[in-house]
From TrEMBL:
Family label: Belongs to the bacterial ribosomal protein bL20 family.
Location of this chain's protein in the cell: Plastid, Chloroplast
Keyword annotations: Chloroplast, Plastid, Ribonucleoprotein, Ribosomal protein, RNA-binding, rRNA-binding
Keyword Lipid metabolism: no
CDD domains assigned to the protein according to its UniProt record, in alphabetical order: Ribosomal_L20 (cd07026)
Source species of the chain: Pimelea aquilonia
Lineage: Eukaryota, Viridiplantae, Streptophyta, Embryophyta, Tracheophyta
Protein name: Large ribosomal subunit protein bL20c
Length: 116
């Protein structure tokens, strides 16, 4: 019986995987079995951290707003500010409030004074 050479499909699949992990170090970018494991791990981490990033940024914005309103002129805290904003139906999201707190504190104080 004649010898049959393997096709190119499996090799093409492995080459695609190698492009995905080309920046990884050591065997993580060279050995096929390790490449498969690292690819799964990388995709899992990317999926998990997309949600994590949103959570982390929200925490950062809340911290910045709280620090800005406690620092000077205003003598109350973040939770009171947000509660009063919702009561007055002044709907600014936390990202915008944090940018205002960093770039223009006087504007943040004007907003807080308009609420109370």
């Amino acid at each position: 019986m004649t010898r049959i050479k393997r096709g190119y499909i499996a090799r093409r699949r492995r080459t695609k995987m190698r492009f995905f992990v080309s920046g990884f170090r050591g065997a993580h970018s060279k050995v096929t079995q390790t490449i498969i494991q690292q690819r799964i791990r990388a995709l899992f981490s990317a999926h998990r951290d997309r949600g994590r990033k949103k959570r982390d940024f929200r925490r950062l914005w809340i911290t910045r707003i709280n620090a800005a309103i406690r620092w000077e002129l205003v003598s109350y805290r973040y939770s009171t500010l947000i509660h009063n904003m919702y009561q007055k139906q002044l709907l600014l999201n936390r990202k915008i409030l944090a940018q205002i707190a960093i770039l223009n504190k006087n504007c943040l104080y004007m907003i807080s004074n308009a609420i109370f």
